[in-house]
Amino acid sequence: MTDTHQAASRPDAPILLVTKLHPPAVPAQAIARERLFERLADGREGRLTLVACPPGFGKSTLLAAWRESEAQRRPVAWMTVDEGDDDAVVLWSHVIEALCRACPGLPHAELSAMAASAPVLEVVLPRLVNELVEQGEVALVLDDFHRLSSAATRDTVAWFVEHLPATTQLVISTRTDPALPLGTLRARGQLLELRADDLRFTGPEAGEFLTGRLGLDLDPADVELLVARTEGWPAGIYLAALSLAGAADRHALVAAFDGTSAHIVDFLAGEVLAAHAPELQTFMLRTSVLERLCAPLCDAVLEDDASADALALLARTNLFLVPLDAHRRWYRFHHLFAQILRVELERREPDLVPGLHRRAFAWHSAHGTTDEAIHHAVAAGAFAEAGALIAETWVHYANAGRTASVAEWLARFPRDLVDTDARLLLVQAWVAALRGREDEMRAAVARARALGGLDDGPLPDGFVSLASSLSVLHATFGWGDVAAILEHGERSAALEGVESPWRPVITWALGWAHYCDGDLGAAERRLRETVAHAPPVDQWIVGVAAVADLSLIAGMRGDRGEQMRLALEAAGLARERGLTDAVEDGEVHTALGVALAADGRPAEALPALEKGVFLRRLWGQPLDLIDGLLGLAPTVAAMGDGARAAALLAEAEALAAACRDPGVLPVRLAEAVRAAGLDRTGGAATGAGGGSRAAGRPGNRDAELSERELTILRLLTGVLSEREIGQELYLSFNTVHTHVKAIYRKLGVASRADAVARARVRRLL
User: Fold this and answer.
1) pLDDT, tens digit, for every residue of 470-529?
2) pLDDT-derived band at 697, boundaries 50, 70, 90
């Protein structure tokens, strides 16, 4: 009874919860709200349709019913958002799966693999938008959008909204206005809004629901009174109906009913719950700790075997239990109802709650749903168990690009628990490095070293000891220090045996360092080790990179045939393993471009070389970027743009100057300058093409950044969105955005990542 699906062919790809891709079943008692269907249909002319109102207004039921109707005219994809989607990789993996299920014409395998390996904002979303252009009319519903709290992930949605093709309607259901450019969309006439007043039951709708659907046969005056008391709030009307069904004097109950939200909890405890048998009350209260329910999970949490019957009974009689799949195996409580149940559980049986979460953790852990397992462990205060699971599984999440998920798990721990657990500090260090945050990595490493006990091991992530994990980390992320990579790499090779799953990472790091240091023989030996040992332990990222690096070495030796063969092999492996757009494998594109250029095909080489530099910028390692710029600049010069080639080489020289030990890369840079026919000041020499205009460093060096711009530039190095930067500095979003554009213009860049990189080169940070 699985509810999961692998996002792509890679074994470490994100696990998809397919229950999130099914809209809730429309209850038989639900009424058709044609007036709202017509409003939603009007949204086809805009960019965004927003259904925003507090809980209990029937947003999900309305959209599920509309989807059934609308799907007869065009594809409608559905995704229910939850807290796990704060990781952009998770969110967009599910969105892509939902869209591909609705639109068979989309390249499912390619998009899924890309979502699991490529940068979301820079690669995945542009490709998805381009593919949607070819699909004709389609709608996408994102339900429960308010559960998305990550500013960085919301920014990806904002980009998507801004770039949606005219044939795609995005429908967002939320309790609160999302941090999206609603004002701009409203001013452009591209926003359709349905608010609480739109979703309130009218008198006729309430009458049809209470009398026509539920058979309560109320007097029309009582219906109108109930609508007035609840102000048309659908949840309030339904809660009243649950009690009215068993009441002898329905008129008296309607007269006494206060439908305001302030009285709902007391009403639930006194009337609605009391209408059920005691064992069913207990079932609802204790299973309310679960986000999703199925019979085996409920049995495990309750230590019982009667959950299937209880779920079936509630599904027939209670509109607040929502089926999540066509087979009715998985359910969830309506969010409002679940909140009320949890409050009542804490009031009645507070001592039971940690134990319920612990048993939920054990069940999810055993069934491989790690995100939910960690959620329940943290809710139970079982931090030791949660920490052990994180230490065991973080590598798989990191390989799937889900470093944000791991970082979020650790952020939920008490700070002192992380700071006294060397295993978790090392996980924190690895995740920081993978996200390009050197300072965070070094801070976590320093805290781990201060704890001592580095010889402890083996570790559940495959390292023989804490010391080995530290050493491999420093070998993998050298931050521009070839000597340090070699030192830590050799130590790692001594600590980790040839059977270690980390052995290919170590040999690749050593091969790369020898390549940067000019010892091509040693580099070739280590890289061939990587190629041999990577596939058996599924270390394809370094395995593919090693083949690309061997192609570059063959080119340096003048073996053009072997250079091209290896470059094509690396590109083929990257496609096969879903790594074409992985930031870790930018050298694949560099190697292919260099091979094509050497074969006299500069026009074909240029796109591959550009992509290599693009990905290596995102990877954030200066030695990699220098190598990419070294590959790109000669082809740019050969195609006649000497000024740009000079700028690229000047950037590479500045990066090399900032490195602690750049190996022989400065020598290669000097050779590249001479080979491209460029003078040392960055101008084009006679015959180089591109004129003699001085290039210097990219950007307008005469345009100095203001103090305000420098302040904003420093904040751009962190995780805050532009909107959050504005809140930090008490500036409007538009003011911050204007400053950011000015920073980009003065630095000669087009993205946040490039601005930070260029600022570091120019010593502005």
Assistant:
1) 999 999 999 999 999 999 999 999 999 899 999 999 999 999 999 999 999 999 999 999
2) very low
Strands 138-143, 76-80: pairing kind: parallel
Beta carbons of 464 and 452 less than 8 angstroms apart: no
The pair of three-digit structure tokens given for residue 342, joined into one six-digit string: 């949890």
For 265-294, what is each residue's pLDDT tens digit? 566 656 667 777 889 999 999 999 999 999
SS3 at position 649: helix
CATH number among 1.25.40.10, 1.20.1260.10, 3.40.50.620, 2.40.50.100, domain 475-675? 1.25.40.10
- Do the beta carbons of residue 52 and residue 193 sit within 8 Å? yes
Q: Do domains 4-199 and 707-761 have the same CATH topology?
A: no
CATH fold for domain 707-761 = Arc Repressor Mutant, subunit A (1.10.10)
- CATH number of 4-199, picked from 3.30.710.10, 3.40.50.300, 3.40.47.10, 3.40.50.2300: 3.40.50.300
- Block residue for tokens 């599984």: 393
- Bridge partner residues of 79 (DSSP): 142
Phi, psi of 168 (to 5 degrees): -110, 125
Tens-digit pLDDT profile for residues 180-215? 999 999 999 999 999 999 999 999 999 999 998 888
Q: Enumerate long-range contacts of 665-673, CB under 8 Å, 24 or more apart.
A: 665/516, 665/623, 665/626, 665/627, 665/630, 667/518, 668/630, 669/626, 669/630, 672/630, 672/633, 672/634, 673/649
- Residue ranges of alpha helices (H) inside 452-559 are 466-476, 482-495, 503-517, 520-533, 540-556
How far is the C-alpha of 43 from the C-alpha of 190, rounded, in Å? 8
- 55, 176 Cβ separation under 8 angstroms: no
- DSSP bridge pairs for 80: 143
H helix intervals, 676-732: 707-716, 722-729
Enclosing H/E stretch for 453: none
List, as one string, the DSSP characters of 580-596. Answer: TT-GGGHHHHHHHHHHH
- Taking residues 96-111, what's their average pLDDT? 94
Cβ–Cβ contacts within 10 Å for residue 104, how many?
9
Phi, psi of 694 (to 5 degrees): -65, 140
Q: Please give the backbone phi and psi of residue 53, each rounded to the nearest 5 degrees, phi first.
A: -165, 165
* Tens digits of residue pLDDT in 543-556: 999 999 999 999 99
Domain map (residue ranges) of the chain:
4-199, 203-275, 475-675, 707-761
Least confident of 616-630, 644-658, 659-673, 689-703: 689-703
- Which structure tokens are listed for 307? 């959950």
Question: Are 684 and 646 contacting, i.e. CB atoms less than 8 angstroms apart?
Answer: yes
pLDDT of residue 9 exceeding 50: no
- Alpha helix segments (H runs only) across 116-181: 125-133, 151-163
